[in-house]
């Protein structure tokens, strides 16, 4: 377990391998363990770093100061502390939002961009976003985080053979601090790049699951608005594609990295 201090908090991280840096950013309410199937695979050829974002996992849980922009500043300071000039950012869900913001705010730090079942504008998703914000906050307030963790985990891993994946993700989610989860969620739903998306020049791979919460068409739409992006679709997968289809995901990411 490694820790580094940035912006008055500590970030917990893992660091394996050597070479070009892959910086892995997990989803809302989870931890760096989202990447357990990627770290051993890619650390054979790359330096792979997986960190816990603020308020998550073994990183600090501040009382205030949440949101994509704040997490982005943490990641920049983290790279500065480790003297990493550039990295390929691989962001899943909320981690994808942080990766997008890094590419918009600090393009010189971004070698390539990999966005996994995420989007550039959580604040303009229309009724999907509005319904999610309303239903999840009401669920949290009325039933608590433990019940929400069970609900989310079942939706992500509903198949019988996914029981162990479901249990592991549920445990990660229910171990969250309630306030940190709530603040991370509501600030995420208020975040968006807007016109900054078109300014991103980094070579970008967007990975979409065929059974994700948001459609493949939703991802294709923003891919079409980017300068240098392409879409890869992974079949028979839900939101947590890095977990439920790790072999297929690793193959797609490996090809993207080797094609540069």
UniProtKB/TrEMBL annotation:
UniProt KW Glycosyltransferase keyword: no
Keyword vocabulary terms for this entry: Hydrolase
AB hydrolase-1 domain sequence ranges: 21-177
Presence of the UniProt keyword Mitochondrion in the record: no
Top-rank taxon: Bacteria
An annotated GO cellular component: membrane
Family matches, as InterPro entries: AB_hydrolase_1 (IPR000073), AB_hydrolase_fold (IPR029058), AB_hydrolase_sf (IPR050266)
GO function terms (MF aspect): hydrolase activity
Name this polypeptide is given: Alpha/beta hydrolase
Classification of source organism: Bacteria, Pseudomonadati, Bacteroidota, Flavobacteriia, Flavobacteriales
């Amino acid at each position: 377990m490694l820790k580094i201090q940035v912006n008055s908090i500590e970030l917990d991280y893992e660091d394996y391998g050597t070479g070009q840096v892959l910086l892995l950013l997990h989803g809302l309410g989870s931890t760096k363990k989202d990447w357990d199937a990627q770290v051993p695979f890619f650390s054979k050829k790359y330096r792979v770093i997986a960190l816990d974002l603020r308020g998550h996992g073994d990183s600090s849980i501040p009382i205030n100061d949440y949101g994509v922009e704040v997490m982005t500043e943490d990641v920049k300071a983290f790279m500065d502390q480790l003297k990493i000039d550039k990295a390929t950012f691989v962001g899943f869900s909320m981690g994808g939002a942080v990766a997008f913001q890094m590419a918009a705010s600090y393009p010189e730090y971004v070698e390539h961009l990999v966005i996994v079942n995420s989007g550039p504008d959580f604040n303009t998703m229309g009724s999907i976003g509005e319904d999610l914000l309303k239903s999840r906050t009401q669920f949290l307030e009325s039933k608590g985080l433990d019940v929400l963790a069970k609900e989310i985990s079942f939706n992500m891993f509903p198949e019988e053979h996914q029981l162990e994946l479901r249990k592991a993700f549920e445990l990660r989610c229910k171990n969250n601090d309630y306030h940190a989860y709530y603040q991370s969620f509501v600030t995420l739903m208020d975040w968006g790049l807007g016109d900054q998306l078109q300014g991103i020049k980094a070579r970008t791979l967007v990975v979409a699951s065929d059974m994700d919460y948001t459609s493949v068409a939703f991802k294709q739409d923003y891919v079409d608005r980017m300068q240098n992006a392409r879409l890869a679709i992974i079949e028979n997968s839900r939101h947590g594609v890095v977990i439920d289809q790790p072999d297929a995901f690793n193959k797609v990411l490996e090809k993207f990295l080797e094609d540069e």
